[in-house]
Amino acid sequence: MKWRKLGLIYEPRPIDDYLLTHASNPLAIYLKDDVFRIFFSGRDKKNRSSVGYVDIDIINRKIIDVCKSSIFNFSSKSSFYSHGVSIGTAYNLENSDYILFMGWQIKENEHWRGDIGRLRLINGSKLILDPELPVLTSDKEDPISLSYPCVIEDDGLYKMWYGSTISWTSENGEMIHVIKYATSKDGINWTKHGLAVPYEIGVAQAFSRPSVLKDNKGYHMWFSYRSGNGTKYRIGYAYSNNGLNWVRKEDVGIDVSKEGWDSEMICYPFIFDHKGHRYMLYNGNGYGKTGFGLAILEHG
Hints:
The chain is mainly beta. It has one helix at 285-288; strands at 2-10, 21-32, 35-43, 49-57, 62-66, 84-93, 96-105, 113-122, 126-129, 146-154, 157-167, 176-184, 191-195, 206-215, 218-226, 234-240, 246-249, 267-274, 277-283, 292-299. 44% of the residues are buried.
């Protein structure tokens, strides 16, 4: 597998008080021709994240338009997204488009935690919370915290891969945060099936933002991960025949650059196909503070 980097395609600039910095968790939704609307999570001065978008011609890597203001914001202290909204992926249900997200909460004297919520996309540029409560939250299977969901529709079944915290710390001081699997017949009510991608302390133990595609060779997943040895986020890959049992592969084909905007970390991948090519949107240094770039799959 070999990805060729096409460079930084969006560098954040202040849009409003909600979108001052960062362009994290890029999510591409096709508009027309070679233009995609790329939703992202930006931050305010207190690091609380809200949602904006930018329209980009990915062939020419040209910015066509940028939102004039944030289109969905973090909420009140009592909500499950009181301290931020981190974009996951989109799916279609009964002719409506939905975007799943991780809602951040930071309660006084407690560790931060997350739940998974859902937004309905209206006319391509408006987002409303639907339903009002999280679609996936803590229970016996996931007692601590949840994160970044990815959903695809496959032969009439909706399949979700999402993050779940097993422990905030381990013997090397790094959290253990894994990728699990859930399914739904209606896209609303989900049945959890437990661990999907195997983790290994000191190798890959803190996962985030899975991005899954299925083709005639099976299921492919890209994600960001930390090993616990002090190295910042890298992008990993796993393969599955059934979507439940995954094998991590070492041949990822993309790494940090020697210098520049993605020289310290690469993270939060989103994979999509366009005109016979496979592309990756991803963040670099500072969890998206330097913006997001684009890569194209050349081999693999």
